[in-house]
Each structure stands twice: as structure tokens, then as C-alpha cells.
Write a structure and sequence with these properties.
By secondary structure, the chain is mainly beta. The protein is built from 4 helices and 44 strands. The strands form 9 sheets. It has a 22-stranded antiparallel barrel. The chain has a 5-stranded mixed beta sheet with strand order 3-9-10-7-8. Strands 4-5-6 form a 3-stranded antiparallel beta sheet, with no helix packed on it. The longest helix has 20 residues, at 3-22. It is globular, with a radius of gyration of 26 Å. The termini are far apart.
Length: 739
């Protein structure tokens, strides 16, 4: 076993020992039920590495951004970019530079697949549970889950009438939110739930050129859910969700000056010019006001039909969004140019699933799935004044596609303590793509107009096989093998594409990527159900890993030949007393390219190091993957103390640690995120029956500033780097009342 991994496991066990010694509560830890294998099962019975967050934890810790999930779940990274949020699990995920990349981590809300993360603008609102499933999930979840899957379950209508209102004010940056929920019976056999939330997130960056606080975001979301028991055997669930958001202001700043003439010009003409990451930006509003706006509509219809002891489920989903972002991309006040990034997306999906009754002999799940999508996206870049250049480059991309798949999974009980589960899915994918580049004015000579199109057809068969052994009634161990695939596609937003084609490098089309993974795990429930400890070690090999990087002047998009990711994940939940519980998580990751010809040259590399100076490429064999910290961990404590028969004091504290990692594959120190620890906490007092509560919630209490995304400054090409930062410290006073 890797020495660093062995030390990590030993450290994890040592951390647990004092807590285990204290675990003397007469109660038991709550059972966690998951649907990672398409049926409801105890987390401790599922032979997969799964992290689970309850809706109560989401509310208590004030998690409202999609990116906030990564603060509690090791080996999960979610970063904002120019396009959709970029999601990585175990160091594997799609790059931010090609807007048309599909995710390597599948997103599902109430069983409906999302082809784009923007479909769910506010996924942490009124949720019941969030499951993060790590490793290839191609057999049961389907396409584009070769790194893992995130499954969100929203809250259902209640059998009795409930209503609540909750609001909060954020002191540091003048943010606030209000949400209201009404739930209960509407008529005979009909239940309903309406949840509404409006929110303002105050700007945490001071634009020193304008005096504005940026970026300021206002959002609104409403979700209506109905459950109709049509007969004793047929349940119909309908959901309609609408959201809109409007963000004003910029969020990029220079993190490294560099040494070129543009940097010198900026420093000479802008009294606010600086190159340290802080909460001040010197960029003005750009050629047009910066920001983004979107509106999203989602609908789902789920029918569960009990056929004796079997259940037949139909899930029909529809989603669409319109999104536009305007950004001054250099992070300076030189007003060189700006980009407008529009995206329109529409998707239909249909799944039919048959679930056999659970028994101790043989049980199975079988299904059919279909999705189609239509996507239009682009990047329109206006150059106002850059030496002799002034003009507009417009890249507009259209892609449409559809996929069909059939899948099945069966579990055979070899003996009372042994189970063998096999899963298989066959998929067919069709995708059409076209990207048109037009130019006006005087632009760099490499920005040549083009009109390129392509058509792809892919067939994939993915499977998994795992063997489980119940060592005792409370300890289960498993070994599994799984495969996954992510579909190929077409480059959408590169001005220099035709020029590189003329130079013999054609990366308009990239291939599908394949994952193969082994996992060995142990899941144990100890101390008379007062402690739960799960550990998994894994090894995943990727062929044709889809990669991207931005070199300041052009993109490098393509497929790395091979990548290897291996490591460990461990988590534990302990009930130390009736009032105090502890949750710990630890992850170790060793992630590197095994072979990557045509990657970007490493920072400072010369021809002697293997860098092809003419093309700016190098084989990155043996180098570390992006967004792949070696160590990550978190600890969360929850304490509830009755003050009187009617009053309870509650407190939660969460510490999250991430090792250093890089945002770009050339391992440029300017794109490095240093190792850091962030602290979140909550202190609340309220009625014992939770009818009302007042709480103070703090996020990133030590005000640790970290890069959210980093890239070479466009046009500067002289060692200059631009970055955005994650939100700093925020303190929110919340109040809630249940009717």
C-alpha cells in the first residue's frame, strides 16, 4: 500500500479513537437510506463509495450555492467558470475551456438527468437529501457518469398541513433571503407542496474604478410538487420548477502582473493596479456592464405502479434554460475587450424502470432510458483597442443529439452472507455539431473564419460486478469492478481553430473517454448502532481522457491517452451522547497522466525538457491532474442542548481542509491554490418542537481567500495571470417559523 495512504488511514483511525471511547450514548445513530442502486437501501448495504448530506444539514450550515457541496465532501470539486460550473470527482472531470464539454459527473434531480449544470440553478433549495456517488456509474446511471454522479432529492408533500417561513440577513455584504413553504393535503388522494425563495447575494469585491460592490446576484425560485394516489396501486408525482437570476458586476482580477508591455501600460495608467488576490478589483464596467442572467424551467412527471410486489416506474423530464454572460476577461481597466457568452439549452428525457421485490434469493432492476437535447451556445468577443486590432470575433455553435439505452442489474444471494451483483447497460448515442466563426474589423491573423460541422455515432456497453460479504451482522466488505464512458463532441469557442488545422493540428472533434475502476471497501456499524465507519480504496484508469487548457492566445482541446487515479476515502459518524454527534471524512488522491502527448508545455519547460516550442505542446506523462489535492478532509460536530422543556440551544461547526492543487495542467505556480482550511459554524436557539428558531450562521469564518478559477490573461502572453476568488467570510442572521 502507498506509504502516504497508509499514514492517512492510520491518522484517520487515531482521530477516531478518542471519539469511540466517548461514544456512550443510549440512543442510536440515524439510518441513512440511499437510492444509489435504483432502489431504496441502507447506506451500509450499498457496495459503492457514497457521501450523503441531509436537507437538514444543508439548511443548518447555510449551503445555498452548488459549489458549497465541496466544503463537506472530500474528493468533490465544483468551480465556477466562464461557462457552466466545472465538476470534478476524484480529480476527474471536464475542463472549463470548451463550453460544449459534457460533464464527467452526472447530475440528477428527482431521478431526471441533467445534460447541463445550469439546468438546476438552485439545486440546494428545499432538498431532502443529496447523494454523491464516486467512481464510474455507467451501468446504472448511464452516460457521462464515468467519474461519478450527484443525485438530489427534493422534499415531497406532507400528509398533514405544514407551512413555514424562513429568512436571513447577511451582515458582511448586505445579502438577504426569504423562503416560504406550504405543504399538505389538497383534496382526496392529492397532496401538494409549494416552495418559493427569493435571494440577494451581496457583492464581496470592491470595484475601485466605480465604487460598486461586485458581483451582486439576485435570484428567484419556485417549485410546485403534487402527489396523486390515482388508485391504491398507482402514485403520480408531478413537479414544476422555475428559477431566474441576475448577476451584476465583474469578478476577475489580475493575480500575477507578468512583464509584458500591456501590463506595464496598465500599471502606468491605473492608480488601482495591483496583482495580489484580495477583495478589490480595479477593472471598470468593461465595454458593456458585466454580469450574467438566466432563467430556467424544469418539469417532471413520475408514475409508480405497484404490480403485486413489483414496481414499474416511469420518469418523464423536460428542462430548458437561457443564459447570457458578459465579462471583461483581463481583470484590468484597459478596456481591451469583452466577451458575451450566450447559451440556450433544451432537453427531454424518458425512463422506464421495473424493480423486483427485495428478497434473499435474487432481486433485480431493469430499465430503458432515452434523452434528446438541443443546444446553442457561443462566445462573441469584441476587441476595442489592442495595438492595430479592433473588431469582433463571433463563434456560434449548435449541437443536438439523442441517446438510447437499456440496462439491468441483478443481485444473487450466493449464501446468507454472500451476494454477487452484476449490472450492464448498452447505449447508443448520436450527436450533430456545427461551429461557425465570423470576424469583422482588424483581428489577429490567426483568427480565421471557418464553418465546421461533424456527426458522431457512438455505442457503449458498460458494466459493473461486485461481491459482498457480511463479515458480521454489522460489518460488510466488498470488492467491485466498474466501467463508464463519456461521449465525444465538438469544440465550440476557439478563434484560432482553423489556423491550427492549417498547421496540422485538428482538435475540432474530440473522442469519447473510457473509465475502468476497481474498488475495495468496508462498511461497519459499531458500538450498538452508535457509530458508522466506511472506508474505500480505489484505482481508476482512463483512456482518451478529455482535456482542455487555455494558453492566453488559443485553446488546447483533445484527449489525453491515459490517466491513472488511485486513493482512499473514509468517513465516520459517531453519536457521542444524546446531544453530541461527530462526522469525519478523509480522502487521499494520487492522480496523474500516464501518457498525454500534445498537452500544454509545463511551466518553464524548454526543448531540452520535451517542450515543442513551435506548437506549445509537451507529453505530460507523470504530471498531476488539475483540481486533484493529495489530501482532503472535514470534521463536523453537531450539539443540541435543551435549556428548558420548551427551549433548545443548538450549535454546529465544520472544518474543511484541502491540500494544494492546480487549475491548469501546465502546473504554472500562478495557477496553484495553496493548502488551506476553512471553518463554517452555526449557533441557534429555538423551540424544542422546532416551531421557531433564531440562528447565527458563519461561512469561511477565518476569511480565507482562495482561487475559484485561474487562467492566463488573454492577450498579455507575458506571464500574466487572471483569477476569481471563492466567497470570503459571510455572517448571516436567520429566523424561521413553522405554522
Amino acid at each position: 500500500m502507498n506509504h502516504s495512504l497508509s499514514r492517512g488511514l492510520g491518522f484517520f483511525v487515531l482521530c477516531l479513537l478518542p471519539f469511540v471511547a466517548l461514544a456512550a450514548a443510549p440512543g442510536v445513530i440515524d439510518e441513512v437510506v440511499v437510492t444509489a442502486q435504483k432502489r431504496e437501501q441502507s447506506l451500509q448495504e450499498v457496495p459503492i463509495s457514497v457521501s450523503v448530506l441531509s436537507g437538514q444539514v444543508v439548511d443548518d450550515l447555510g449551503l445555498y450555492r452548488f459549489e458549497d457541496l465541496a466544503t463537506l465532501i472530500p474528493n468533490l470539486h465544483i468551480d465556477e467558470s466562464l461557462g457552466s460550473p466545472v465538476i470534478h470527482v476524484r480529480g476527474l472531470g471536464s475542463g472549463a475551456e470548451n463550453f460544449a464539454f459534457e460533464q464527467s459527473v452526472g447530475l440528477f434531480v428527482d431521478g431526471v438527468y441533467s445534460g447541463r449544470s445550469h439546468l438546476f440553478e438552485n439545486p440546494l433549495f428545499d432538498v431532502a437529501q443529496i447523494e454523491v456517488v464516486r467512481g464510474p456509474q455507467g451501468a446504472l446511471f448511464g452516460k457521462n457518469t464515468n467519474a461519478g454522479a450527484i443525485s438530489v432529492t427534493t422534499r415531497r408533500p406532507t400528509d398533514t398541513f405544514e407551512a413555514s417561513i424562513r429568512g436571513g440577513y447577511e451582515f458582511e455584504y448586505d445579502g438577504h433571503f426569504v423562503e416560504g413553504i406550504v405543504s399538505g393535503p389538497m383534496a382526496d388522494r392529492l397532496l401538494g407542496r409549494l416552495a418559493v425563495r427569493t435571494q440577494k447575494q451581496g457583492g464581496f469585491l470592491e470595484n475601485r474604478a466605480t465604487g460598486n460592490d461586485e458581483p451582486e446576484k439576485k435570484s428567484f425560485m419556485a417549485r410546485a410538487t403534487m402527489v396523486f394516489d390515482a388508485t391504491d396501486d398507482i402514485e403520480v408525482i408531478g413537479k414544476l420548477e422555475y428559477s431566474e437570476s441576475d448577476t451584476k458586476g465583474g469578478w476577475f482580477q489580475i493575480s500575477n502582473f507578468g512583464t509584458g508591455p500591456l501590463t506595464n501600460l496598465w500599471r502606468a495608467t491605473d492608480p488601482f493596479a495591483e496583482d495580489r488576490l484580495d477583495q478589490r478589483i480595479s477593472s471598470d464596467t468593461g465595454l458593456d456592464p458585466q454580469g450574467n442572467e438566466s432563467d430556467t424551467l424544469n418539469a417532471a412527471l413520475t408514475v409508480n405502479w405497484s404490480l403485486g410486489e413489483f414496481t414499474l416506474t416511469s420518469i418523464t423530464g423536460f428542462g430548458r434554460f437561457d443564459y447570457t454572460k458578459v465579462v471583461e476577461f483581463t481583470g484590468t481597466a484597459l478596456r481591451l475587450g469583452q466577451s458575451t457568452i450566450p447559451e440556450d439549452f433544451e432537453q427531454w428525457s424518458q425512463e422506464l424502470r421495473l424493480i423486483s421485490p427485495a428478497n434473499d434469493t435474487f432481486e433485480y432492476v431493469a430499465g430503458l432510458a432515452y434523452t434528446n437535447h438541443d443546444m446553442k451556445l457561443g462566445q462573441i468577443t469584441e476587441i476595442a483597442s489592442f495595438g492595430p486590432f479592433s473588431g469582433v470575433t463571433t463563434r456560434l455553435s449548435e449541437q443536438d443529439g439523442e441517446s438510447w439505452s437499456v440496462y439491468g442489474s441483478g443481485t444473487y444471494y450466493i449464501a446468507p452472507d454472500w451476494r454477487l451483483t452484476g449490472s450492464l447497460r448498452h447505449s447508443r448515442e448520436r450527436k450533430n455539431g456545427r461551429t461557425v466563426h465570423t470576424t469583422t474589423g482588424v483581428l489577429p491573423p490567426t483568427w480565421l473564419p471557418y464553418d465546421l460541422s461533424g456527426r458522431r455515432k457512438e455505442n457503449h456497453t458498460n458494466g459493473s460486478l461486485n461481491l459482498q460479504w457480511d463479515v458480521t451482522d454489522d460489518v460488510m466488505t466488498y470488492v467491485s469492478y466498474a466501467t463508464g464512458a463519456k461521449v465525444g463532441g465538438f469544440l465550440s469557442n476557439d478563434s484560432s481553430l482553423l489556423f491550427r488545422i492549417m498547421q496540422g493540428v485538428n482538435d475540432f472533434e474530440y473522442e469519447d473517454e473510457i473509465a475502468k475502476s476497481w474498488e475495495l471497501g468496508v462498511k461497519a456499524t459499531l458500538l450498538n448502532n452508535r457509530a458508522r465507519i466506511n472506508v474505500a480504496v480505489f484505482r481508476t484508469e482512463f483512456d482518451d481522457l478529455q482535456t482542455s487548457s487555455f494558453q492566453g492566445e488559443f485553446f488546447i482541446i483533445g484527449n489525453a491517452a491515459e490517466a491513472l487515479v488511485q486513493g482512499m476515502e473514509a468517513d465516520a459518524s459517531l453519536l457521542l451522547s444524546d446531544n453530541l454527534s461527530i462526522t469525519l471524512a478523509l480522502a487521499y488522491l494520487d492522480a496523474e497522466y500516464k501518457d498525454y502527448p500534445g498537452g500544454p508545455c509545463l511551466f518553464g519547460a524548454t526543448e531540452a525538457d520535451g517542450c515543442d516550442v513551435a506548437t506549445g505542446t509537451q507529453n505530460l506523462k507523470g504530471t498531476r491532474l488539475v483540481r486533484a489535492p493529495e489530501w482532503e478532509g472535514s470534521v463536523t460536530a453537531d450539539w443540541q442542548q435543551p435549556l428548558t422543556h420548551q427551549l433548545t440551544l443548538g450549535a454546529q461547526i465544520n472544518l474543511t481542509y484541502k491540500d494544494d492543487f492546480f487549475h491548469q495542467p501546465n502546473l504554472d505556480p500562478g495557477h496553484r491554490v495553496s493548502a488551506h482550511t476553512k471553518i463554517n459554524a452555526r449557533l441557534g436557539v429555538g423551540a424544542t418542537d422546532r416551531r421557531w428558531e433564531v440562528a447565527l450562521v458563519g461561512r469561511n469564518l477565518t476569511d480565507k481567500l482562495t482561487k475559484n478559477w485561474s487562467f492566463n490573461t488573454p492577450f498579455f502572453a507575458d506571464g500574466s495571470r487572471t483569477a476569481s476568488i471563492a466567497p470570503p467570510r459571510m455572517i448571516t442572521l436567520e429566523a424561521s417559523y413553522r405554522f
